[in-house]
Write a sequence for this structure.
């Protein structure tokens, strides 16, 4: 059993050796699939009619449902954030589902979840500074000036909270499935793990994508 992020190849750039890992390859595959789907949807948009039918119904339902979700969570005035969070939600969910294809989910790597967490942290911070700069900087010294270090740690905890939660849940599912495959005879590895894949890859994967997205929205809403 191997639960580590294996290096599949190495490349040398300016004398520095860089590893191409399973996470890189899985991420590229997920990105490729989503880019192709986005192009197909963009082409389909040119043929949209006033009365939706077929795939137009599905696309409009997905977009309108998420738009309403953003408005209910962050308020109508912040619906522009929906474009970013829709992309984040779809990418994270697709990454979590990639385990169904036998790939190592990119979100089972702390590097992936950390990047999304840092990006969300920067979005929260800059949104707060642009909307209410005075209140944002003042909040670090409230309710007492001496609590400044504690408030800074509280801000940075957003990164740890978002990244470690998703990373731990996805990696734990990967480990459990790996142990099951290792213990079962080959003839039984087709049927029995299916229920576990549904739980860890589909159910837990969708839940983690939802939790990451809604917590990010709430962080921004509270700041602005």
């Amino acid at each position: 059993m191997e639960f580590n992020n294996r290096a599949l190849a190495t490349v040398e750039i300016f004398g520095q050796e860089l590893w191409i890992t399973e996470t890189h390859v899985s991420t590229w595959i997920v990105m490729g699939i989503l880019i192709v789907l986005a192009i197909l949807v963009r082409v389909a948009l040119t043929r949209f009619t006033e009365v939706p039918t077929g795939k137009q119904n599905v696309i409009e339902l997905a977009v309108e449902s998420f738009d309403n979700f953003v408005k209910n969570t962050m308020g109508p005035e912040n619906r522009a954030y929906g474009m970013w969070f829709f992309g984040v939600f779809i990418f994270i969910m697709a990454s979590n589902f990639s385990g169904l294809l036998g790939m190592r989910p990119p979100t089972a790597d702390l590097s992936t979840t950390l990047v999304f967490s840092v990006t969300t942290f920067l979005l929260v911070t800059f949104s707060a500074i642009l909307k209410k700069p005075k209140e944002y900087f003042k909040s670090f010294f409230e309710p007492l000036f001496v609590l400044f270090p504690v408030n800074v740690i509280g801000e940075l905890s957003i990164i740890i909270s978002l990244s470690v939660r998703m990373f731990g849940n996805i990696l734990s599912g990967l480990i459990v499935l790996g142990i099951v495959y290792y213990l079962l005879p080959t003839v039984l590895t087709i049927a029995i793990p299916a229920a576990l894949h549904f739980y860890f890859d589909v159910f837990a994967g969708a839940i983690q994508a939802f939790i990451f997205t809604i917590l990010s929205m709430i962080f921004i809403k509270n700041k602005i």
Summary: DSSP finds seven helices and two strands in the chain. Strands lie at 7-13, 16-21. The first helix runs from residue 22 to 45. The mean pLDDT is 85.
